[in-house]
């Protein structure tokens, strides 16, 4: 199953940069997004994670456990944000922290190339919760292999 997210998320950090060759640099944006979601998201991150993290009834199994980090960089995603759709996005640095009651604090990065004044418009919502959708736009992607690239190189 491929990673995807749809719901309310907080823009925790925004970084705008130029990338590419010196003679044709393009604007790129990195967003750090945070969300509280159900443990259903764990099914997309790996088999058996929910049973590993939670006791029956939803209590966190090991309160000393820190966030689970997934070091994949996944390409070819669509990000729906503030009424705009961005294609060719990269998703990276996914972290999942269990919360009592069967919830997950999800933190992830999304990189994309904005158009026009979208950086300024997104920056207006920094530290605010907004509705987003993040979906694979290529049927070949999953976290377990073929579409994933290890972020360590």
Characterise this structure.
- The protein is mainly β and about 150 residues long.
- The protein has one domain (about 5-15, about 25-150).
- Helices cover about 10% and strands about 50% of the residues.
- The protein has helices at about 40-45, 50-55, 120-125, and strands spanning about 5-20, 25-40, 70-80, 85-100, 105-110, 130-135, 150.
- A six-stranded antiparallel beta barrel has the order 1-2-5-4-3-6.
For the largest beta sheet, what order do the strands appear in spatially? 1-2-5-4-3-6
Number of helices: 3
Helix-strand pattern: EEHHEEEHEE
Largest sheet: 6 strands, antiparallel, barrel
- Average pLDDT taken over every residue: 87
Topology:
Layout: E1 5-19, E2 26-38, H1 42-45, H2 49-53, E3 68-81, E4 84-99, E5 103-112, H3 118-123, E6 129-136, E7 148-150
Antiparallel strand pairs: 1-2, 1-6, 2-5, 3-4, 3-6, 3-7, 4-5
Which short descriptors sum up this protein?
single chain, 153 residues, mainly beta, six-stranded antiparallel β-barrel, 10% helix, elongated, disordered C terminus
Structure described in brief:
By secondary structure, this protein is mainly beta.
